[in-house]
Amino acid sequence: MHRKETKNLAITAIFVAIFLLQTLIPNIGYIRILPTLPAVTTIPLTVAIYSLLMGPIAGTFFGIFWGIARMVQAYTQPGDIVSLMLFQNFVIAVVPSVLAGFFPGMIGKFTAEKKSSVKEISYTIAGAVTSLTNTAFVILLTSLVFMGNSAKLLGHLGSFSQGTPLITALIVALGLNGLVEAIFTAIVTPIIVTPLTKVLRRLG
Predict the structure, then answer these.
(1) Cβ–Cβ contacts within 10 Å for residue 125, how many?
(2) What is the mean pLDDT of residues 85-93?
(3) Which of 61, 66, 52, 63 is nearest to 23 (CA)?
(4) 129, pLDDT greater than 80
(5) Mind listing the pLDDT tens digit for each residue in 174-190?
(6) Is the pLDDT of residue 32 over 70?
(7) Is residue 54 within 8 Å of residue 11, measured between CB atoms?
């Protein structure tokens, strides 16, 4: 038991270090395509891999860590006005991150005893789910939080007419980022998780 706890602690420390590098070093965790809109982030890949390796509970706590980190970042060094407006809100910053950490862990848990081909497909699905969960809940919660004050945010999302529903503008403005993130995470997750699980299984 002690050996397993030590191994889990070591894995967590490595992933926290990777996460901090992604957060603190420009163009590693956040890749900016349009200067006025939130960056495309590679952090869902890290979250997906960690959650698949460690399970849904650990993935949930990693998601909490991610959410708090991006809220702190929004207060201290926001890269754009939209991120500042969105992620200074605790609910928008943390809830999508928590769910993005939980869901891939559940997928990994349900497919842990399946054959290799099924598990590899599940890793791809988990990667896509991580990114899409984050994007979808950021859009949904933002539309609810800013429901009574949508004009202020709408002006920073692009050239939308005043009558455009906020959720429509958010889908258009943030949807491309979310799609790019989901494709990237879905492709890379099984490439990394498959050999890692084999190595960790040998370590016991």
Answers:
(1) 17
(2) 93
(3) 66
(4) yes
(5) 888 889 899 999 999 99
(6) no
(7) yes
Give the separation between CA 35 and CA 18, rounded to whole angstroms. 25
- What is the helix (H) or strand (E) element at residue 40, kind and residue range? strand 40-41
CB 55 within 8 A of CB 11: no
Tokens linked to 152 = 């202020």
Strands 40-41 and 30-31, how do they pair?
Answer: antiparallel
Instruction: Report d(CA 58, CA 19) in Å as an integer.
Output: 15
Structure tokens at 120: 């590899």
Total length of the chain: 204
Cβ distance 156 to 85 under 8 Å?
yes
Burial of 164-177, coded b for 16+ CB within 10 Å and e otherwise, reads eebbebbbebbeeb
Contact 126/192 with Cβ under 8 angstroms?
A: no
Q: Residue 166: which H helix or E strand, with range?
A: helix 166-203
Contact 204, 3 (CB under 8 A): yes
Higher-confidence residue of 7 and 69: namely 69
Other C-beta atoms lying within 10 Å of the C-beta of residue 144: 13
Q: Give pTM, 2 decimals.
A: 0.90
CA distance 134 to 112: 24
Kindly tell me if the per-residue pLDDT of 36 is higher than 90.
no
* Distance, first Cα to last Cα, the chain: 10
